[in-house]
Please model this.
Amino acid sequence: MNISQILLEYKAVSLSTEKPFRYTSGILSPIYCDNRILLTDPRSRKIITEHFVEIIKKNSLEFDVICGVATGAIAWGALVADALEKPFIYVRSEKKEHGKGQAVEGKLNPRQQVLIIEDLISTGGSSIKAIENIREAGGIVKECIAIFMYGMEKSQQTFKDIDCRLFTLTTLSELLKTAVTDQAITKEQQSIILDWIGDAANWGKKHGFE
Model:
């Protein structure tokens, strides 16, 4: 079973071209992702953790510390850190407004190389803020691995702009191919969803929902 099949089977990713989801930003979308539900299932946790480790080893990624981005990727980061017997920290995209006002939780020494673990990359905005907070705290970030990404051009360019390589276990385009093969959606629905990647802001109006 591949990662896309797991996301679909456990409904971590939901697809709907007839009744789209409305994000907090107000944008309408034919896709909704919540990878936290996968933490419930031992098999899913095991397979996803193994795929993270496979990407790390395949690409010979070098790092001192693994960091999960709060809150969705804290558990995934800890699982990968355990599998590789590496130190673990987590980071918020925004600093706390109380206490020490810090964004990084855990011990991070100056100049340590940090591998970022994410659960989802949409526009990439929150991930970039998290990376910047690690760098501000003295860490070095060169790579980020996410379970899933929508594949928007903006998000991919954003990571290039901050000199951080992005790896993913699967992407929306790969997941849609799996969904068509498994007859979960039609090719017409696949095309409608892919259209959202190209112009998310105007997708709802274009398809008659606004």
